[in-house]
Structure formats: structure tokens, C-alpha cells
Design brief:
Layout lengths: L1 H16 L3 H7 L2 H16 L6 H26 L3 H12 L5 H16 L3 H9 L11 H48 L11 H26 L2 H11 L9 H11 L3 E2 L2 E3 L2 E3 L3 E2 L8 H27 L1
Antiparallel strand pairs: 1-4, 2-3
């Protein structure tokens, strides 16, 4: 499968090089381009009224189809065979976030190892939406582990999954959906109605990848039966139909409890615990989570290689 080979190239390039800062300063990043389009359309079309949900649906369809169509046009310009596969992988690499996710979480782990709680809070604030200024060491570790688990699905497994199925248009279209959800799929007065279609579409696009990610974590930790029991008990208790799966798998694999109460703005969300009978995580558990994440990444690469060889 040429698409699997292209996704293997994309994963390898992003894991090794990421998105160089020099390039970002010059031209930005494809996701920021998508975000700029969403911002412009949202500013024009998000108006109170009975058609607010429909307007948000129009924006979601326009952005997603435009991005996927642009990617399809690019594929038509590529040569056939292995060279086209490699070039498609190069174009797909910015839509994978394997290295950037690892680097962000590793930065939190370094601050925790230095017992620098203030800087650890600042680092974890870059990757979570909750308030972090009151988190203790365990709270910072828990937030970082949850972000690592959820974004392993949203930022690595899901884009590669849709890329294998539909090539460059699949991975680009998925990233448009995911970016829409992150920007307008919030339960806030401004976006609860306008972003409803984007949020539901993101839930649908991530349904199977989230469960695949949980399975990959279970296999990577070497205790699939133990993790499977925690998944069966707790994964569906999460407020998200998808995030509970990789987070519960991470909790079981590392041997800690995740989720639980947290603060968003001025609101305290009383979330249930995942693997609630376990201890709270610490800095060493965050390092264990990163190790598990790297093992999972190797597993994903091997699956892509096997599919490409088919």
C-alpha cells in the first residue's frame, strides 16, 4: 500500500526533524494556515440566532473539504511509484505531531526532575486547557500524562490512520477536523452551538483511532490483560467518548490514576477517576509514560512497514 509507505515516511521525518523553527518563522505551519482560515470564517459567520449551528456546520464542511481538496490536487501533481510515495510522505509529515508532543511532555518532565514546580506548571500549561497555577507536582504529572495519552491518538495514530485509508487528502482532512474542534468545538457561550458540528465530526473521526491507541499502549506495556480490565471498567466513564480510552490505557500501563477533578477557568469539573484505586503520578511516572509512548511509536512504525510491504 503506497499510502502506508507515505505515512511511514511522514512519521519518520516528523520524529527525526519535527518542524524546524527557521521554517516556522518564515512560513508558519500548515496547521496555522488552517487555523487562520477558521479564525476568519468564524469571525464572519458566528452570529447569535437560530442558524448558528448551521453556520458552524457550513464552516466545518468548507474548511474540511477545501483542505482535503487542496491535498488531492497536490497528489495529482506527484509522480507515480515510490518517488511519489516519498514526496507524499514529505507533504504529510507536518500533519503528524510525534516529536513535538514528546518534546513538550519531556520539557515538563525535566522541570519536575529539577523540582521546579513553577516552571513545570508553565510547561504543562502549553499542552492542556485547564488552569495550572494551583497544581502540585502530582497534578502537573497527571495533566501531562493525560495530554500525552490523548494526543498520542489525536496527533499521531488518528492522522496516520486516515492517511493510510485515503492518502494525503485523508491526513490533511483529518487535521482540518481536529483543528476545527480545538478552535470552535468548545462548550462556551460563543461556540457551544457554532462548534457543535465540528465537535461531533471530531468525535466520529477519532472513535476508532482512540481505541486503537489504547490497544497499542496495552501491547507496548507488556501487560495487555491488566490494561484491558481497566479499559473495560473505566474508559467509558470519561466525559469524552474517545479520550477515556488512551487515558485509561496510560493509567493502567503506568500504574497510576488519571482524570479526576480539575479546574477550567472558574469552573471545577468533577470528573471520575481512571484506574482510581492506584496512586497519584509523579515525575518518574511521567518518564515511564514517555517511554511507553516511544514504544507505541515504534509499534506504529512497524505496522505501517508491514502494510507498505503488502
Amino acid at each position: 500500500m503506497l499510502s502506508a509507505g507515505a505515512m511511514l515516511v511522514a512519521l519518520g521525518l516528523e520524529a527525526v526533524f519535527g518542524w524546524p523553527e527557521a521554517i516556522y518563522r518564515r512560513i508558519g505551519h500548515p496547521v496555522t494556515w488552517i487555523g487562520a482560515a477558521i479564525t476568519g470564517l468564524e469571525a464572519r459567520m458566528n452570529r447569535p440566532g437560530p442558524l448558528r449551528t448551521a453556520a458552524g456546520g457550513v464552516v466545518t464542511v468548507v474548511v474540511t473539504t477545501s483542505v482535503a481538496a487542496a491535498a488531492w490536487v497536490l497528489t495529482q501533481l506527484l509522480p507515480a511509484g515510490w518517488l511519489g510515495m516519498v514526496l507524499s510522505g514529505v507533504l504529510a509529515a507536518p500533519f503528524v505531531a510525534a516529536r513535538s508532543l514528546h518534546d513538550h511532555v519531556a520539557a515538563v518532565a525535566r522541570r519536575l526532575a529539577e523540582n521546579d514546580l513553577v516552571q513545570a506548571r508553565q510547561e504543562v500549561a502549553k499542552i492542556v486547557g485547564r488552569k495550572t497555577n494551583a497544581l502540585d507536582m502530582q497534578g502537573v504529572s497527571r495533566a501531562a500524562l493525560e495530554s500525552l495519552a490523548e494526543n498520542a491518538s489525536d496527533g499521531v495514530v488518528a492522522p496516520l490512520f486516515w492517511g493510510v485509508l485515503f492518502g494525503l487528502p485523508g491526513i490533511a482532512g483529518y487535521k482540518a477536523i481536529n483543528t476545527l474542534d480545538s478552535m470552535i468545538g468548545h462548550r462556551t457561550p460563543r461556540h457551544a452551538e457554532f462548534g457543535r458540528v465540528a465537535a461531533r465530526l471530531d468525535d466520529l473521526a477519532n472513535w476508532l483511532p482512540a481505541r486503537l491507541t489504547a490497544g497499542l499502549f496495552a501491547l507496548a506495556c507488556g501487560r495487555p490483560g491488566q490494561v484491558a480490565r481497566i479499559l473495560a471498567a473505566d474508559a467509558r466513564r470519561h466525559r469524552s467518548p474517545n479520550a477515556g480510552w488512551p487515558e485509561a490505557a496510560m493509567a493502567g500501563a503506568v500504574g497510576v490514576r488519571l482524570s479526576g477533578p480539575r479546574i477550567y477557568g472558574a469552573v471545577v469539573a468533577e470528573e471520575p477517576w481512571l484506574n482510581g484505586g492506584a496512586r497519584d503520578p509523579g515525575g518518574d511516572d511521567l518518564l515511564a509514560g514517555l517511554k511507553l509512548y516511544r514504544r507505541m511509536g515504534i509499534g506504529v512504525a512497524l505496522v505501517l512497514l508491514a502494510l507498505a510491504l503488502l
